[in-house]
Backbone:
């Protein structure tokens, strides 16, 4: 690794000072599972790492505040998965989190870091968007909430402005029945990026929402209000046509993980599968 | 710009105080500076698990952690998993089941198996596979490892 210096601020105020002092040469260090790899492979450049794990204001785990789960920037994925109430409320997100890397990776990797890294293949992003996650961005002048799908603007690009960083992610507890599914296709589970990943929800009035990852520079969202996708008794041809209509919004590319056509075909197959999963969760009263 | 920084670390029950450059990984320091070469380096990017250690009781890849990040914490490496001259049940079972071929992945495998069994003494085969999914064995000795781990699980009372 190229030399860099290291700072471990103890408070938010000190962190904002460091970010304004060092500007774009500073990088936030959370779990390091992307950043250290990037520094080692020299795809990332930084002269100062600002380790946020010493910030006193951050909650160590997950908190339920005013109908929202709040996940702090230093809470790793394994810890989040230990909360029974969280698991029961966001089962499709938990499935996505449990596909990230390995035990060792999840013991370090933060959910916030998975979002901030802004990889088009990040596995937690499609279900986060489907569950309506908001990114809580902090700056010296206060905080602002940005929907996750707007926060990630393209590969490695986020809505963060100079001097800002992410304090937490907020997930609203669904206030009406909702069924959500998640699927991911990969060549080798554990250590390869997703070829495609997707999540969908069905609500009690028959609205179906889809989020497709790894098939465009940003997350692709689609909504079907016709009721066809929510109705498992509708003719299969009509359902496939409605799903294909949503998939038409994606722009998959051919690369080492699969061809464009293969990715599109898999979106249809996996889309059907997670619709069934979401419908059964809606039926069982589990989100 | 990049001066060495002081670090205090408990490693295998012993207190170590030293200075470290901020861009040195915990793995580099364990192996190159402290002579604890049981922990292996292979991919250095979090994929193979050869560098698995326990940090504050949790299994992590030492190649992806900076030594300076570990300041104030405690680390258990393969050298400290059993008392000197002794072996854990997992280590014995690996030998009994012939689960060790070239041996390079084994320290990491043992650390992952110990972590799994400490949290879940009677894992299903699927849970064992998941627990070891961050560890690669290029000799392909996975089946014997699974048998070894399941034998340890069967011995302990449910
Ligand atoms: C072997 C391996 C397997 C993996 N498998 C998967 C997988 O299957 N699916 C998947 O989605 N991901 C996978 N990943 C990547 C995954 O571990 C990360 O995306 C992780 O969640 C990032 O979190 P972190 O805390 O480690 O972030 P870091 O590495 O510390 O940071 C990542 C980036 O986000 C920035 N950042 C972090 N926190 C903040 C903040 N609070 N505010 C502003 N910027 C911030 C950092 O500056 C950096 O640019 C894998 C990684 C490895 C090494
Ligand atoms: S050397 Fe750390 S995971 Fe391979
Ligand atoms: S025994 Fe050779 S790498 Fe596993």
Residues:
């Amino acid at each position: 690794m190229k030399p860099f210096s290291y700072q471990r601020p103890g408070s938010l105020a000190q962190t904002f000072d460091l970010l304004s002092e060092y500007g774009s040469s500073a990088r936030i260090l959370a779990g390091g599972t992307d950043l250290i790899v990037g520094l080692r492979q020299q795809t990332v450049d930084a002269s100062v790492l600002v380790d946020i794990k010493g910030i006193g204001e951050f909650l160590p785990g997950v908190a339920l505040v005013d109908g929202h789960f709040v996940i702090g920037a230093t809470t790793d994925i394994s810890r989040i998965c230990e909360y029974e109430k969280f698991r029961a409320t966001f089962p499709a997100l938990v499935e996505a989190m449990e596909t990230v890397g390995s035990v060792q990776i999840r013991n370090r990797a933060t959910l916030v870091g998975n979002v901030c890294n802004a990889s088009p293949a990040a596995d937690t992003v499609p279900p986060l968007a489907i569950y309506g996650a908001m990114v809580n961005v902090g700056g010296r002048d206060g905080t602002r909430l940005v929907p996750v799908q707007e926060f990630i603007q393209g590969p490695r690009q986020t809505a963060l402005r100079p001097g800002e960083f992410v304090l937490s992610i907020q997930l609203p507890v669904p206030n009406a029945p909702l069924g959500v599914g998640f699927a991911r296709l990969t060549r080798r589970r554990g250590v390869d990026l997703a070829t495609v990943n997707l999540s969908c929800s069905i609500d009690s009035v028959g609205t179906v929402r889809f989020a497709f990852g790894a098939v465009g520079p940003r997350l692709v969202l689609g909504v079907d209000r016709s009721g066809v996708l929510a109705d498992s008794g509708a003719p299969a041809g009509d359902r496939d046509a409605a799903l294909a209509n949503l998939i038409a919004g994606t722009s998959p590319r051919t690369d080492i993980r699969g061809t464009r056509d293969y990715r599109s075909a898999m979106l249809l197959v996996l889309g059907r599968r997670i619709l069934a999963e979401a419908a059964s969760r809606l039926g069982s009263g589990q989100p | 710009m990049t001066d060495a920084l002081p670090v205090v670390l408990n490693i295998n029950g012993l207190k170590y105080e030293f200075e470290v450059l901020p861009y040195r990984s915990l793995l580099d320091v364990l192996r190159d500076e402290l002579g604890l070469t049981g922990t292996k380096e292979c991919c250095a990017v979090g994929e193979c698990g050869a560098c698995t250690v326990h940090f504050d009781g949790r299994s992590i890849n030492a190649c992806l952690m900076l030594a300076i990040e570990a300041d104030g914490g405690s680390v258990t490496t393969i050298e400290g998993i059993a008392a000197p001259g002794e072996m854990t049940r997992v280590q014995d079972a690996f030998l009994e089941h012939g689960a060790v071929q070239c041996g390079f992945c084994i320290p990491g495998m043992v650390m992952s198996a110990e972590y799994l069994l400490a949290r879940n003494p009677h894992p299903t085969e699927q849970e064992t596979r998941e627990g070891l999914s961050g560890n690669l064995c290029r000799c392909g000795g996975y089946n014997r490892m699974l048998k070894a781990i399941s034998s340890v699980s069967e011995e302990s009372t449910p």
In short: Chain B has two domains: 5-78, 89-155. Residues 89-155 of chain B form a domain with the DNA polymerase; domain 1 fold (CATH 1.10.150.120).
